């Protein structure tokens, strides 16, 4: 992750959790111990209690988000096969090196990639992991809320992305490899599509980043969450998917749009279903006023409806080489 600033914070009163099945995930989702106001480079413990770290053969390769006591949401491109061998998920983790007194780890019994995931285009880049046993919610381990269908994230909506990925292409996060956080604004799909090449960005994707670059997710962050604050809750709008390099000008990060997938997610999780919350942006979406020249209108029409196979392929996913 790129340029970050120190944050202010305030504390929430934390009440004991009780068994309110099947609504417990909705009641507790998206409420961290420390809430964001401005931001910071190293995330404080308890700031993002849904953040998961996926390990294979003892090495972090992708992120994820806890969505109830036994399921983690991540990206399909993190997995080249459905094998769960040597796969471990850590939640409550703060550093990749040194002690983590608040973490727990679980094996994985199922890897369920979206049936319509297309590796060549990264469309439907979503995957669910079933943990080997449930985790107990604490101040440092709790689920995130998920964006419900009908959520609107207008261009400029403030969002946060977290992970342990490289701090720029080819440069690893320095020891002790503390969880990083970055604030990025949503980039409208129309503008994002023009930047990446007409037809690359589908309705199943959401983009975020600065026009000048400098802030982004990077290799090793794949599968991790992009979240937005609404009142006292944090709602996951995206899953880190792909991008052209890391933090390049005019090429924002591209994320899987979570609000498109409630039906599929709930079809896989029969009990204690995740908490889906509608996020509503205020005002008018500036992306709707993005100017389309006649030539761009023709290109868009041809790419989407006449020659869809000729649309440009996206660049690199953001999984680490150990995936």
TrEMBL record:
<protein>
    <recommendedName>
        <fullName>Peptidase S1 domain-containing protein</fullName>
    </recommendedName>
</protein>
<dbReference type="GO" id="GO:0004252">
    <property type="term" value="F:serine-type endopeptidase activity"/>
</dbReference>
<keyword id="KW-0720">Serine protease</keyword>
<keyword id="KW-0645">Protease</keyword>
<dbReference type="InterPro" id="IPR018114">
    <property type="entry name" value="TRYPSIN_HIS"/>
</dbReference>
<feature type="domain" description="Peptidase S1">
    <location>
        <begin position="37"/>
        <end position="270"/>
    </location>
</feature>
<dbReference type="GO" id="GO:0006508">
    <property type="term" value="P:proteolysis"/>
</dbReference>
<feature type="signal peptide">
    <location>
        <begin position="1"/>
        <end position="20"/>
    </location>
</feature>
<keyword id="KW-0378">Hydrolase</keyword>
<dbReference type="InterPro" id="IPR009003">
    <property type="entry name" value="Peptidase_S1_PA"/>
</dbReference>
<dbReference type="InterPro" id="IPR001254">
    <property type="entry name" value="Trypsin_dom"/>
</dbReference>
<keyword id="KW-0732">Signal</keyword>
<dbReference type="InterPro" id="IPR033116">
    <property type="entry name" value="TRYPSIN_SER"/>
</dbReference>
<dbReference type="InterPro" id="IPR001314">
    <property type="entry name" value="Peptidase_S1A"/>
</dbReference>
<dbReference type="Pfam" id="PF00089">
    <property type="entry name" value="Trypsin"/>
</dbReference>
<keyword id="KW-1015">Disulfide bond</keyword>
<dbReference type="InterPro" id="IPR043504">
    <property type="entry name" value="Peptidase_S1_PA_chymotrypsin"/>
</dbReference>
